[in-house]
Amino acid sequence: MIAFLTLCYCAVLFLLVKAKIIRLTTFWKASPVLWLIVLFVFLFIPMQWGAPGGPVRSYMNVIEIIPNVTGEVVDVPVKPLVPLEKGTLLFQIDPLPYQAIVDQKKAALAEARQTVPQLEAAYLAAKASVAEAEALRDRSQDDFQRYQQANANAVAAGATSTPFSESDVEQRRLTYLASEASLDRAKASENQALLAFNSEIDGVNTSVARLEADLRKAEFDLEQTSVRAPTDGVVLALTLRPGQRVANLPLRSWMAFAPISSRRVVAAIPQTRMRFVEPGQTAEVTFSVRPGKIYSAEVESLVLMTAAGQIPPNGVLPSLSSHHGPNEDVGVVLKLLDPDTPVREIVGGAGGTSAIYTENVQATHIIRRVMIRMEAWLNYVRPN
């Protein structure tokens, strides 16, 4: 740009000399050098921090699409690099095995729900059995006590013989003890039936609650056979085809998806030119992929970290020697102001040039605007 303005000055000087408005003295012969120095000192040096510029790169985050279930792919309806809305079907895994599991869980749940009235009936039957065992116990106890008391009364009266033999009394005693054991067994069965009937969690039978949880898991797995777009974006690399078997292992991804909202344009500005750059300032960007076009932007944020300032987590003491240049570029995130810019227009990885207009040395903004427009038109003729 300095050379261009200097050539313009020389052309004007030539015309003035030809028109005999000025005489070509030694001063005017040396004036192009003076003009060059004045431009450099008073315009282009202040422009480096008043309207800094630098190369830009368009970045897009990539989401690795890994299904939550394993199975055979039966359909891949999407196409690569075509904008998709959130929830669009990316690929379909064969749902038949998972539908069968859902049907099985539904049947088991229905059976478990029918079991709850059966458990109540079993508890009532066990309770009736206890009452029956108590009656039998009381009757056998009365018989045993009656036989035993009759013999005791006969002995007390001085009778030479008892009305019942010892064998009969012992038989009634054993019958009574057996009825006691039957009653204990009936009470244990009643407690067991009561525990099974009252086994609940949050007011739901535990078997029913477990099968309901299994059914929800099975329905979730069935739903996950339809792998959908996590957000608005595009599919980048699409090599997946029907018939391929996919797994829910995080060892590899089956599709690469780039969210549109994650597109960021980052400008690389040297540290010496960053002193007045702040978020919210206006900027302009031109991309090599779109020659002759200028995109309006604004500074969204500053990347306050460089590769030289990053310490990786390891046990090695970082060296203080300079591995990078002392003026390593700092990233400035730019936000394109046109939200309707198509994804195909600025692809991920697109390179170009940026210009940031600060609130300082605003006279230099005109030169920077001319320079970035010259850069945009030069993209038509650049070989790479």
Structural features, described:
The protein is an alpha+beta fold and 384 residues long. It has helices spanning 2-18, 26-50, 96-156, 166-198, 206-223, 365-378; strands at 53-59, 63-65, 71-75, 89-93, 200-201, 204-205, 226-228, 233-235, 245-246, 255-259, 264-269, 282-287, 295-303, 330-336, 351-357. The strands form four sheets. Strands 1-11-14-13-12-15 form a six-stranded antiparallel β-barrel. It has a four-stranded antiparallel sheet with strand order 7-4-3-9, with no helix packed on it. Strand 12 (282-287) and strand 13 (295-303) form a beta hairpin. Helix 1 runs antiparallel to helix 2, helix 3 packs antiparallel against helix 4 and helix 3 (96-156) packs antiparallel against helix 5. It is rod-shaped. The mean pLDDT is 81.
- Low-confidence runs of at least 5 consecutive residues: none
Helical run tally: 6
Helix content: 40-55%
CA-CA gap between termini = 21 Å
Mean of pLDDT: 81
Main sheet: which strands, in order across? 1-11-14-13-12-15
Number of strands: 15
Helix/strand structural class: alpha+beta
Order of helices and strands: HHEEEEHHEEHEEEEEEEEEH
Tell me about the biggest sheet?
6 strands, antiparallel, barrel
Question: What Rg do the Cα atoms give?
Answer: 46 Å
Shape: rod-shaped
How much of the sequence lies in strands comes to 15-25%
List the helices and strands and how they pair.
Layout: H1 2-18, H2 26-50, E1 53-59, E2 63-65, E3 71-75, E4 89-93, H3 96-156, H4 166-198, E5 200-201, E6 204-205, H5 206-223, E7 226-228, E8 233-235, E9 245-246, E10 255-259, E11 264-269, E12 282-287, E13 295-303, E14 330-336, E15 351-357, H6 365-378
Antiparallel strand pairs: 1-11, 1-15, 2-10, 3-4, 3-9, 4-7, 5-6, 8-10, 11-14, 12-13, 12-15, 13-14
Helix pairs in contact: 1-2, 3-4, 3-5
